[in-house]
Write a structure and sequence with these properties.
InterPro entries: 5-3_exonucl_a-hlix_arch_N, 5-3_exonuclease, 5-3_exonuclease_C_sf, DNA_polI_H3TH, FEN, HhH2, PIN-like_dom_sf. This is 5'-3' exonuclease. The protein is α/β, with parallel strands linked by helices. It has helices at about 5-15, 30-45, 60-65, 90-100, 115-125, 165-170, 180-185, 200-210, 215-220, 230-240, 240-250, 270-280, 285-295; strands at about 1-5, 50-55, 105, 130-135, 150, 160-165. It is built from 13 helices and 6 strands. Helix 2 (about 30-45) packs parallel to helix 4 (about 90-100). It is elongated and about 70 Å long.
Length: about 300
């Protein structure tokens, strides 16, 4: 099980009010509690025997920005870095401390997003693999032949969607391995991807279905007999420069240099005294107990 840690802890932060989750000194711990409870639920219901949590070591890599300067530009703080709520930032080290005490592997890579780490692990780790995220871009990692699924938590872990290629085709009208081309055409304001103006989901899916991928679409644009409606041809031609780079931005890297990782999910915390100390300090006893109980049930 590959966990998109930022996706989960952002959802936890916005899903649980700070007022009901604080340490004794008043420090908010809502993201920590929510994240740990999500992990406990996933372990209890999916019963993985291996787990890795992926982190963003670079939320907006230079190589993506060089291709598309608008990439995540709206989330850039004036002083640099990502706009993150002030009370979430200090909770991330707490999450990492708890994961270390439990013995769950965490990994990131300089110059890459968590998505890229997840993508690389999805093709290098022994199958079956379940990727857990609320990021639609990761639909592209689904591979029925290899046994890679996406547990999409856009509606929360309790209502996760267990997605294979059929689910992606049903939802978007394209196969999972063409999702990146579809997303580039449609655009995604949350990532600063403008898409092709005037091309929505249905048109994007129809284009991918007919021409296979963006290379096929661009090649067809140069063929007067390819059957494009004049208006659509004009829209696509006007976006040629964008379409030449967008797929490289949207596609998840599958070749991130990563060290050998211990992936076995422990059945008990590797540092129980440290975990107890953290639970007491940050008022996390309930969440830590639920996580420990979920691990023990795996044994």
């Amino acid at each position: 099980m590959l966990i998109d840690a930022p996706s989960l802890y952002f959802r936890a932060y916005f899903g649980i009010p700070e007022s009901v989750a604080k340490a004794e000194d008043g420090t908010p711990v809502n993201a920590v509690r929510g994240f740990l409870d999500m992990l406990a639920t996933l372990i209890r219901t999916r019963r993985p025997d291996r787990m890795v949590c992926a982190m963003d070591h670079d939320w907006r890599p230079d190589w993506r920005v060089a291709l598309l300067p608008s990439y995540k530009a709206h989330r850039l703080a004036p002083e640099g870095g990502e706009v993150v709520p002030d009370t979430l930032t200090p909770q991330v080290p707490m999450i990492l401390d708890v994961l270390a005490a439990v013995g769950i592997t965490v990994v990131g890579a300089a110059g890459y997003e968590a998505d890229d780490v997840l993508g690389t692990l999805s093709v290098t780790q022994e199958a079956p693999v379940e990727v857990v995220s609320g990021d639609r871009d990761l639909f592209q990692l689904i591979d029925d032949a290899r046994g890679v699924r996406l547990l999409y938590v856009g509606r929360g872990v309790a209502k996760l969607d267990d997605c294979d290629d059929t689910a992606v085709r049903s939802r978007y009208g394209v196969p999972a391995d063409r999702y990146a081309d579809f997303a580039a055409l449609r655009g995604d304001p949350s990532d600063g991807l403008p898409g092709v103006p005037g091309v929505g989901e249905k048109t994007a899916a129809r284009l991918v279905d007919r021409y296979g991928d963006l290379d096929g679409i661009l090649a067809a644009l140069d063929d007067p007999g390819s059957g494009f409606a004049p208006g659509l041809r004009a829209k696509l031609n006007a976006s040629r420069d964008y379409l030449a780079v967008a797929p490289k931005v949207v596609r998840v890297a599958l070749d991130v240099p990563l060290p050998e990782l211990p992936t076995t999910l422990p059945t008990a915390p590797v540092a129980p005294d440290r975990l107890l100390e953290l639970a007491e300090r940050w008022n996390l006893a309930g969440s830590c107990r639920r996580l420990v109980d979920a691990l023990a049930a795996q044994g």
